[in-house]
TrEMBL record:
Origin: domain of life: Bacteria
Organism annotation: Pseudomonas trivialis
GO cellular component: membrane
Name of protein: Acyltransferase
Acyltransferase domain residues: 9-330
Transmembrane segments: 12-28, 34-54, 75-94, 138-157, 164-183, 189-209, 221-240, 246-264, 276-294, 306-328, 348-367
Domain SGNH: 402-646
Length: 660
């Protein structure tokens, strides 16, 4: 295929790509599939880079080092400036955990592997990804990896094989096949990894190395192909959304669309080509790389600072700001380096690239090792942020699969062989330990606690084999010593309904289908609870059922520290009590029913200690966070609700079950 010195329509196509991505990220209504703009970029990159390599190889002047130096000159200066600016802004805006993660991402990106990092984290469309200022660099990492490997592959195939184009097309098909499989089985990897995206770049590459032919398409054919190709891209941009299984077969629409447009407009001057070649589209295309670099950090930091979201007007202003920053980056960073007005020699640009990679990479490592430099924060913000960590003593009380029998239980109160009560459950039982310590000491009661994260203390409902093993060990230990009272404490709703986010991984499934059905989960839970109480009562134990603390819709230390950094009030933070009561309705009714049916069963509810007359279940008290995350009480939170355990300790004391 004839390679033109300059194609205005391809710059216009870049404008389509960047507009799709930016409008999607800024939440413009209707542009639900704008993420396919990245796929448009991939095909364009594959076509242009292969065109350059192949043209130079045919002329006998291709150099790997020169090629990589040009890529460094084109990509790295603007990228490094954006990363440095993002790190500087993060110093003033980000909570320690987020700043640590930013350092990690910066380190990975300068060694061209940020896509590998993000593939191991949250999915691209998940809410957690909206606080990653460098998330968008995953696509640059894919392209950079392609630029390193593809020239070697093309040279190897074209110099050793007669039908090397067929071999290259075979590589494309293998990559596409793996992508289709991965979308179904490993969707995050399918989205982020080079070998599962390579087929898109190779689609452009194949177009660039088509054998030259005398025949040219007729104007009518070129017109229809260009119109149909643009239609494929627009269908994807406006028809796809975050629920679309992507890339896989769905990515064929934008990929074939770009291939069709490049081919058709290389044959004839079409209506679509005329539109793409307009001054506005070419102008946007020229700055598309820099605009892409800047739009996402601007959005993330503004949304981060706003805490509660941005209005449509604010989003529009931010989009314009990102465009201005993109233009400035293109004008004062991209262009001077590309035109060799700065670091003109190959050696100079490669040395500068190495220095930049080393400097930013080491900075990222330092931020990780410094835990996000918490000393940056104000005293109050730091106090909130530190609530996310449990003390080592608390963590030591939570069993794991390797915990020996002699360390299965944690003991509180006076040292005495006669233990009055056992607190048994998952990590929510662990979170109660500060309150248990206070009560045990105050009432001179000896008690012990056994907990295992994610393990419901009910027979037959354990989703994980190690949970069943843990419960059997607790039951055996109980049978070997006199324990009058058993306190069951857990995040019950997790096993009934899954996470607040909707994730049903830990929820009880229908045994016959393996699927989650709410009614089945509730029935299994009720049956399991009744069976557990029946067994405990038959063994002579009094039973105390602890309702769970209000689950929050925010990561509390993270949210409060952000608010403190922005000098924003925190007094209205917390879950509305109506939401808590609605989620807990089935559990509350079941517990109350069980207590009413047997005087040896009592219910304890911590919610009244946390929920006030203002209708909120609070997350902060006197400058301290009451939670370590969105569901576990902090040390301060547990001590604050200690009074809700008073009926337990008073009952134990009144029956003379003391250490004396």
């Amino acid at each position: 295929m004839t390679v033109l010195a300059y194609r205005r329509d391809i710059d216009g196509l870049r404008a389509v790509a960047v507009l799709a991505v930016v409008l999607f990220h800024f939440g413009v209504p209707g542009v639900t599939g704008g993420f396919v703009g990245v796929d448009v970029f991939f095909v364009i990159s594959g076509f242009l880079i292969t065109s350059i390599i192949w043209r130079e190889r045919q002329a006998g002047r291709f150099s790997f080092v020169e090629f990589w130096a040009r890529r460094a000159r084109r990509i790295l200066p603007a990228l490094f400036v954006m990363i440095v600016a993002t790190l500087v802004a993060g110093w003033f805006l980000l909570a320690p955990k987020d700043y640590e993660e930013l350092g990690r991402a910066a380190h990975y990106q300068v060694i061209f592997t940020s896509n590998l990092l993000f593939a191991r984290q949250h999915g691209y469309f998940e809410a957690a990804s909206d606080i990653k200022p460098l998330l968008h660099t995953w696509s640059l990492a894919v392209e950079e990896q392609f630029y390193i490997l593809f020239p070697l592959l093309l040279t190897l195939l074209s110099s050793r094989l007669k039908h090397w184009r067929l071999a290259l097309f075979g590589v494309l098909l293998v990559s596409f096949g793996m992508s289709v499989w991965a979308v179904e089985h490993e969707p995050q990897k399918a989205f982020f990894l080079l070998h599962l995206r390579a087929w898109e770049l190779l689609a452009g590459a194949m177009l660039a190395v088509l054998p030259a032919r005398e025949w040219r398409a007729s104007p009518a054919l070129a017109q229809w192909v260009s119109l149909g190709a643009m239609g494929l891209i627009l269908i994807a941009v406006f028809g796809f959304d975050s629920q679309t299984a992507f890339p896989g077969t769905a990515a064929l629409l934008p990929v074939l669309g770009v291939v069709g447009l490049i081919w058709a407009n290389g044959q004839q001057y079409t209506w679509v080509g005329r539109l793409l070649s307009s001054r506005v589209m070419v102008g946007l295309g020229l700055i598309s790389y820099s605009w892409y670099l800047w739009h996402w950090p601007v959005f993330v930091y503004a949304n981060y600072a706003a805490v509660d979201g941005l209005s449509a007007t604010e989003l529009g202003a931010l989009m314009l700001l990102s465009l201005v920053l993109g233009y400035l980056s293109w004008r004062f960073v991209e262009t001077p380096f590309r035109e060799k007005r700065v670091l003109a020699t190959r050696k100079a640009i490669l040395v500068a690239a190495a220095v930049g990679i080393l400097s930013i990479g080491l900075t990222g490592v330092a931020l990780r090792k410094a835990d996000g430099v918490p000393s940056r924060l104000s005293e109050q913000a730091l106090r909130y942020a530190q609530a996310k960590k449990w003390s080592p003593e608390l963590m030591a009380c939570m069993a794991d699969k390797d915990t020996p029998d002699e360390r299965l239980f944690c003991h509180f109160g006076p040292k005495n062989p006669a233990v009055s009560a056992l607190v048994w459950g998952d990590s929510h039982a662990t979170a109660l330990i500060p309150a248990l310590e206070i009560g045990a000491k105050k009432h001179d009661i000896s008690l012990m606690e056994a907990s295992f994260a994610g393990c419901v203390p009910l027979d037959g409902l354990e989703n994980i084999a190690r949970c069943a093993h843990f419960n059997r060990r607790v039951e055996k230990a109980m049978s070997e010593q006199p324990i009058s009272d058993v306190v069951l404490a857990a995040r019950w709703s997790l096993y009934l309904y899954g996470q607040m986010s909707g994730d049903k991984e830990h929820a009880l499934k229908d045994p016959s289908t393996g699927q989650y059905v709410r009614a089945v989960a509730e029935q299994r839970f009720a049956d399991g609870m009744r069976a557990r109480i029946k067994g405990l009562r038959a063994a002579g134990h009094r039973v105390w059922l602890v309702k769970e603390v209000p689950l929050q819709e925010i990561i509390v230390p993270y949210r409060l520290s952000r608010l403190a950094m922005m000098h924003r009030p925190v007094d209205r933070e917390g879950l509305p009590i109506a939401k808590h009561l609605a989620r807990e309705a089935f559990i509350s009714n079941l517990f109350d029913e069980l207590a009413a049916a047997d005087s040896g069963v009592r219910v304890l509810d911590p919610a009244p200690q946390l929920c006030g007359a203002d209708g909120l279940c609070r997350v902060e008290l006197n400058g301290r966070a009451l939670y370590t995350d969105d569901n576990h009480l902090s040390d301060v939170g547990a001590r604050h609700i200690e009074a809700f355990l008073e009926p337990l300790f008073s009952s134990l004391q009144s029956r003379g079950l003391t250490a004396n």
